[in-house]
Design a protein that fits this description.
Blueprint (H helix, E strand, L loop, with lengths): L2 H21 L4 H8 L7 H27 L1 H21 L3 H14 L2 H12 L5 H28 L7 H5 L1 H10 L25 E3 L1 H16 L2 H12 L3 H26 L4 H21 L3 H29 L5 H30 L1 H23 L5 E3 L4
Antiparallel strand pairs: 1-2
Length: 394
């Protein structure tokens, strides 16, 4: 099977697996009303992060098992695990059982790291960084389309909890699509004599610890304002929920259009300075959003934030790809996915605390400062020998 067909199949299946986790959380309030009518609304925030917390715990373990038993079986396991968790959620008759389903979603899921680990084995190494950009793109596409699709189903008088039963079909279809894929990719061939080496600046790249620290700072800057963007836009500019939703999705739309050409442009370049530039752009545009009272300026800042976000993710994927070793790809992707999920939880909880104490404006400034500090940290670590290492053997 050709690498292009393998990549297309895995990406389509990743989108199918991401559809439910991306589309259903915005409607947890409606689901909670049906399962536990008297429950405290503050419980919604905790339900929102339960799958993320459980995935942060399970991802490194599943990654180790993928390295030992094979990436394809563990990718199939992740899709089946999602389907099981959605079925349990759809049939849950009580709040405790629904919480068990959310825990299972995190503990048994993990399609993002499983897809990346399989692609690292099935594709030629020089294509891995671009493949990671595309798995991010499929997640962004799900983030844009899935909530609208779930809302459409609910508007057609389908019980919100029953939507879990419908989306459970998607990972099951993904399993059928993944079955024909090869268990392993072709043997990695050595670069031809005289070919351009993908190792930048003598093969020295940031260490995994330094990359993890950069990923954490970038995630904190990006994610902390997410839960507050829509209500803030509606209140600050007097727009409706639909317009606010487009403002929220604008950076992700930019990513879909920019990630492929940007990934090609950065190929064989040192990604660390570009990652720092992405963090700096994100920080600057967050500060602009906090200061402006103009809707067009706010929208432009959102679009430019999308450019910074794309630059950050594309460069981060290139940094991660340079550290991947064939024997430990599953474990490496598991740890990076776990770190991203933990940072997401800290961003959500910390952002809520800052917004509660000082309002959304200070939260935007705090996120902007985090982006700027991450950029400075990456450039500082890049010049320090203990925080660099040789690129992984291709």
């Amino acid at each position: 099977m050709s690498p292009g067909r393998i990549k297309a199949t895995v990406l389509a299946c990743h989108f199918a697996g991401a559809f439910g986790p991306m589309g259903l959380p915005p409607f947890l309030g409606l689901i909670l009303v049906g399962i536990a009518p008297g429950a405290d609304e503050s419980l919604i925030g905790w339900l929102y992060i339960v799958p993320t917390a459980c995935l942060a715990i399970s991802a490194p373990l599943w990654g180790r098992m993928a390295d030992r038993w094979g990436r394809k079986p563990l990718l199939l396991r992740a899709q089946i695990g999602l389907a099981v968790s959605f079925l349990v959620a759809g049939f849950a008759g009580s709040l405790p059982m629904f919480m068990v389903a959310l825990c299972l979603q995190g503990l048994l899921g993990g399609t993002f790291s499983a897809s990346n680990a399989y692609l690292s084995e099935a594709l030629p190494r020089e294509e891995l960084s671009q493949a990671l950009n595309l798995t991010q793109a499929s997640a962004r596409l799900a983030l844009i389309l899935a909530p609208a699709a779930v809302g459409f189903l609910i508007d057609r008088h389908i019980d919100p909890q029953n939507v879990y039963l419908i989306v459970a079909l998607l990972p099951l279809v993904a399993v059928l699509m993944l079955l024909p894929l090869p268990a392993k990719g072709p043997p990695k061939s050595a670069p031809a004599a005289g070919s351009e080496s993908p190792k930048p600046f003598g093969g020295q790249v940031l260490s995994r610890g330094a990359i993890m620290a950069g990923q954490t700072g970038f995630t904190l800057a990006m994610i902390s304002t997410f839960p507050f963007l829509v209500p803030y836009s509606m209140k600050a500019f007097g727009v409706g929920a639909g317009t606010a939703g487009w403002l929220f999705g604008l950076p992700h739309i930019v990513y879909l259009f920019v990630c492929i050409p940007l990934g090609r442009h950065l190929r064989n370049r040192d990604p660390a300075p570009w990652f720092a530039a992405g963090c700096l752009i994100v920080g600057g545009m967050l500060a602009v959003q906090a200061l402006t009272s103009s809707l067009p300026v706010f929208a432009m800042a959102r679009a430019l934030l999308g450019v910074g976000m794309t630059l950050g993710y594309v460069s981060l994927n290139a940094l991660i790809a340079q550290t991947i070793e064939d024997a430990s790809a599953g474990r490496t992707f598991g740890w990076f996915d776990s770190g991203a999920k933990l940072a997401t939880i800290v961003a959500s909880v910390g952002g809520g605390m800052i917004a509660a104490m000082g309002g959304v404006g200070p939260l935007f400034f705090a996120a902007a400062l985090c982006g700027a500090m991450t950029a400075a940290m990456v450039m500082l670590l890049l010049g320090m020998e203990p925080f660099t290492r040789s690129a992984a053997l291709k």
